[in-house]
Each structure stands twice: as structure tokens, then as C-alpha cells.
């Protein structure tokens, strides 16, 4: 009887927005009439502060063939943290619950694949127990992926700490990086985080394949290498850009869209550091002055931290002085709507890969402000590899000075460099759209992935 049942794909996502958002887009794609799968997303309950209660509302706009199962959090305190270690441990702690969930799904339906994000890869053991093909969803680019796929080898071959390596350049990379551009886990080889990252890399190598939220035309040389038809390689499928396609009417946007409606076309710099990013007080003040000195229009989303709002740290009178040209909001916004608005002309971003993909698909060039994880790699790729962004230089003491910020903002919004970056980003937008179309590389790769599992 099972053979006649609709195939079900199970997605296991750690609760960070950067994983959950693209994985729900993957669910939407699988549920579309063309693929006609039933989907279960398994994740942990989201913990959200009251100002950000809209965070998870996109889950309720998923099609009816997508169910979302929230695993018990078991008083798991690490759930409030988005540090790689904590997310990793939290996923590990969930394995018994995942096993139960999978058992009951399998008794009711035909589970054809388990896809987890790259921090939940210990789930490979559960997939194997049930004889279900196991795939890793890698929510970022091929460059970061190829580093992970090579890190075990590098670990064997060298003893030098990554930050002490002069440059790191792997085959197919369009730009070299420094060890300091790697995420926190790679800054100290004696750390627990490093050990966990090596473990994660090892688990990834056991998967039946990897689905990356990048597309061939964005990283062509590396795509060629990673996607070679070579049985000794782990199959890599580029299926991006997966970005939010449906807007969420329920989200209260604090008047952002109405405000944008009143700004000149392409005039507004959108400033946001993703779902978790915050700046030091000193840096926040410099950024405020930088925006003011640039005399450009801006829409700035400020997160609160430790329950208190960053807006209290802003220079005195900042909001009032800039009210003609600038809006500061503290709530969760629908970023995709803001980036897609005609008035938005630039994005100062922490370079989370979802933000990058959304910016590219909205044709908006960027100023890079990487904060954590693989974001410094993303910034190098965008600035030096692809040419769709600028990076204001960090001065001694690790702070970006107000004059540097003002100059970068002016250049992006008004300068020659900004024009070039905008032209390039529009080309990529077209290429990204084409990759998803029926003749495109990502469409074909997704079909190839699908034909690799028994439906
Ligand atoms: N996002 C949003 N509203 C906000 C902040 C973030 O909709 O106020 C979305 C953003 O559009 C993106 C995701 O949250 O899809 C953040 O993912 P990203 O990879 O950019 O960064 P992360 O938060 O994982 O660091």
C-alpha cells in the first residue's frame, strides 16, 4: 500500500532563521504541483521576543501539504543561542525526538528523503537506521562549502593556526581569503568549536548529496569543480537562489512600506544585520554618524539585545535630526518586501547568505558588514570576487569610522563604483531568475537530485 502513497520528504531544520527560511522555501518548491511531494518540516519551537513575534509567521503561509512539527525543547537552554556549538548540541539532543517523529511518519507515509541543515548532520545516523536517503541542505555558497569539504584534509596536512596562514586559496575560488575571514570555529584549532566543525565536516561527507543555495552562474569555476560527475565526489546540487517568494500579510512593518512609498526611487539605503546581528555601542554610534554624514536616505532595522533597545545608544537627537530622510525601526520586518521596494537602492548587510541572495534577486548592490559565521567569506566573494558590493575598511581597534562609512554609503548610492555594482547585480538577478526557470541550471539540478531518490 505504501507504494501508492504520496512521497514525503522530511526536512529537519535548526531553528535559526537563516536555515528555517530557505528550508521552508525548499518545502514550498517540493510541494508545488510539479513535484507534488508531501513535506514535514521538523524543527524546535522558536523562541521569540515580543518585538519579534512576527519572526516565524511565514511558517503559517506554507501550502497545506507542508506540515510543521515542533519538537519539544526539553528545557534546552541552547535554543536561545545561535552559536554554532549550541545549535549543534541542540540538534544532537533532538535526535531521539527526531527518531520518534520519523518512526511515526514512516508508519503513515512513504518517506523518500531526509534533508537536514548542515548543523544537524548527526541525523545521518537516524536516516541510516530507517534506510532513508540523507541529504544536507547547505544554506550558503559553494566557496564556504568547498572549505568545509576540504577542512579535514587541511587539518591533516598542516599544524599552522588558520589566522596565521598568509592566504587560503582552494581550487575554483575566484578570490583568496585570510584565515581571519573564516568563522569563529576556525580561529583556534584547540577549541571545542573547531573539534565540532571537523566532526560536522566528517558527517557531511557521509551524506548522499548536498543541496546548496547558490547557483552555477554566481560561482561558475567552483560549480564546475564541485559538480564534476566523479563517483569519488559527494554529489553537489546548486538549487538557488531560494528566496522568500510569498509575502506575509500578517507582519506589522512599523510603517516601513508607507515610508518607502514617499521616498524617491532608488534613494534609500536599507541597513540591517540579519536575524541576530548586533553591533558594539561604539560601532553603533559611528554607524549612526556615518549615515547622517552621508546625507543619503536610509531605513535602519535595529535589533534589541538582552531585552534592551539599541536605539537608546544612538547619538542624542539622531532620530529627530534625520526624520526627513531616515527611518529607524526596531521590529522584525519583511526584508524581502523592503529590498523589493522601488525606493530601495542599496543594502548595508551583515552578509548572511539569505540576505545576499535576496539583495541580488532584488537587484540591490551592497555594502558588506560581516559579523559572524561564514560572513567574511561571503563579503570577500561579493566585493573582490563578484563586484556587487563595497566593504568599508575597519580601522585599528576593530571599529569602522564614521567618515569611512559616510564615504562608502555615498559611493554606493551616488558614485561611479555604485553604478558599476548596480549593473553587475542586475546581471546576476537576471542570471538567478534564469537559473530557476525551466531551462536553467538550478531547475535542472533540482530535477537531477529528485531523480536520484526513489519517488
Ligand atoms: N529577516 C527578515 N526580517 C528581519 C531580519 C531578517 O525577514 O527583520 C530575514 C531575511 O530576509 C533573511 C533571514 O531573515 O531571509 C536572515 O537570514 P540571513 O542568512 O541573511 O542571516 P542570519 O540571520 O542567518 O544571520
Automatic annotation (TrEMBL):
GO terms for molecular function: UDP-glycosyltransferase activity. It is an enzyme of class 2 (transferase). Keywords: Glycosyltransferase, Transferase. Coiled coil: none annotated. PROSITE patterns: UDPGT. It comes from the Eukaryota. InterPro entries: UDP_glucos_trans (IPR002213), UDP_glycos_trans_CS (IPR035595). It holds the Pfam family UDPGT. Its EC number is 2.4.1.-. Belongs to the UDP-glycosyltransferase family. PANTHER family: GLYCOSYLTRANSFERASE (PTHR48046:SF6), UDP-GLYCOSYLTRANSFERASE 72E1 (PTHR48046). This is Glycosyltransferase. It comes from Carex littledalei.
